[in-house]
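call fold(seq) -> tokens
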Amino acid sequence: MILLDFERIWPSVPYILEGVQVTLAYTAVSLCLGFVWGMLLALCKVSSVNFLKWCAGFYTSVFRGTPLLLQLTLIYYATPQLTGYTISIWEAGILTFTLNSGAYVSEHIRAGINAVDKGQMEAALSLGISYSLIMKDIILPQAIRNSLPSLVNEAIDLIKESTLISVIGGADILRRANIVASEKYLYFEPLIVAGALYYVLIMILTFAAQLLEKKLKTT
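ret:
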């Protein structure tokens, strides 16, 4: 008979809940920085300068072609060896998630840019509008709207991938759930609580994204 004892871990639930703000902090900061970095990479990919296109493409291939866990542990453990600087868990997590997220975001935005009718660029250039203004005021707003579903998926993936921070000691939801599990000698119950918290966070994000998409369609 399978016996579940949620009463034993109930006093520890607030401790697990404290991990929500840690998870959200990693996700929010990394997503914002990754969006900016991804935007710059996307602009390099659609530029007419072959060197920039090659560099952005190579960067993306490296971060998409290697495991995120490898990137995280490499940055956390190798940085002190290579630079002499003892990087914190927070810095390692933000740096890794930003660099990784930027690679994926750049592809989403590049696809969004390519989806915009090229005639708009040609028409604007014929009117004497500079390339930078065309991209800022005409192309990029449409590209971001086109790639919004993909960007939301990236945010959802980032929430789930943030669990990797527990590997290097980050006190996120999963890390706290594992600590409770080892203290109580119960693993199913605290991990179910952690899973429920991640599910709620992702459902809230999904609902907010759906509202944003509906609002954009009406504007």
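The radius of gyration is 21 Å.
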